[in-house]
Amino acid sequence: MSSELRIAINTGGGDAPGLNAVIRAATLAALSRGWEVLGIKRGYDGLYHEGGVVPLTRESVRGITHLGGTILGTTNRGDPFSFPVPGPDGELQRVDRSDEAVQILERLGVDCLLAVGGDGSLAIAHQLAQKGLNVIGVPKTIDNDLAATSVTFGFHTAVHTASEAIDKLHSTAEAHRRVMIVELMGRNAGWIALFAGVAATADAILIPEIPYELEKVAEKIESRWARGREFAIVVVAEGALPKGGSVSYLEGTAGGGARRLGGVAERIAAELEELTGKETRSLVLGHLQRGGSPIAYDRVLALRFGAAAVELAAEGHFGCMVALDPPEVKPVPLAVAIDRLKTVPVDGDVVRTARAMGISFGDR
User: One of 111, 143, 203, 298 is an active-site residue; which one?
Assistant: First the structure.
């Protein structure tokens, strides 16, 4: 491997606080070695469009560590193995443009791609690695559902944002004697709902890993009223489901054609109001969980990941993902990184802590 490399960086999938910190750390670490750095705009989309690949310099990454979003942009619709292109009838068709992506990167003289993303983006990176591309993955998802790393950057910021929002609901719920149902992100993992719900002292937390019975939640609410606490906060993960039932989906589809989770808070609010007779309102926090500046923990973790990825490239250690294995950041094979998702252990200490505090999971 040459001592001087040209690397490219892209950010794919949903945005997460800390993406810019990764870009900055990786760029500065590479430049300090005398390497060249390119940024690919909007995931892999930039490869197929003029002006979609730009040089990254000290000036272009100056002052971005604290910024949310990503200066390169992102998308969850740009899978080069299933790329949307207009068909003869104007309808979008999906074609495999992965070989073209590899050829473009080769023409650009890219020695290594740093792919920053969640399980979907890293699966694409793994497929590209199997085509001979030198790839290093950087785990990014607010959902914290990648099993190969102790934690992903963006997760703690999302939890902080969610817990602050729930804190604010306490006063209005108490003032109006209402039950408030708060829907949080997380897909099929309940990490955000669990941590935010515990931090903000929710009365019930409903997560995908523990199917709920709404009658149990109603009992929890009734018991609060009986003690003179005439309001309640229920935190629900978007992928939560009733015992023997199924998850809730929004109408329409996501960009990749997949059905989008959502609507569970509204459904639960209507059913709980009927069960309890208590005025119930629902709130979907949505993309607020993705936005804003990363908290200090996520900034430092993202910077560590970016610098570690460049170090691995210097060692010629490709086909892997950087992962936090406290106290160190270490490489794990991409195949292992995407092998399974990390879900909340139902007997884990955070769940046990919540139960000890009297928080209901709707199962007892």
Answer: 143
Query: What's the start-to-end Cα distance of the chain, in Å?
Result: 59
Q: How many domains does the chain have?
A: 2
Single-letter amino acid, residue 135: V
CB 68 within 8 A of CB 36: no
79 is catalytic: no
Domain of residue 269 covers 156-290+345-356
284 and 307 in a single domain? The answer is no
> Could you tell me if residue 75 is inside a domain?
yes
Please, are residues 340 and 189 in contact by the beta-carbon 8 Å criterion?
no
| 116 and 26 within one domain | yes
Amino acid (one-letter) located at 143: D
Q: How far is CA 328 from the centre of its chain?
A: 22
**Region 290-319: what's the mean pLDDT?**
96
The answer to whether the pTM exceeds 0.90 is: yes
d(CA 66, CA 141) in angstroms, rounded, equals: 17
Joined together, the tokens standing for residue 323 give: 């992962």
Q: In this structure, are 93 and 149 located in the same domain?
A: yes
**How many angstroms separate the CA atoms of 194 and 196, rounded?**
6
Residue 332 is assigned to a structural domain of this protein = no
Share of the chain above pLDDT 70, in %: 97
Please work out, in degrees rounded to the nearest 5, the angle formed at the alpha carbon of residue 61 by the alpha carbons of 63 and 4: 145
Report the alpha-carbon distance of residue 299 to residue 21 in Å, rounded.
6
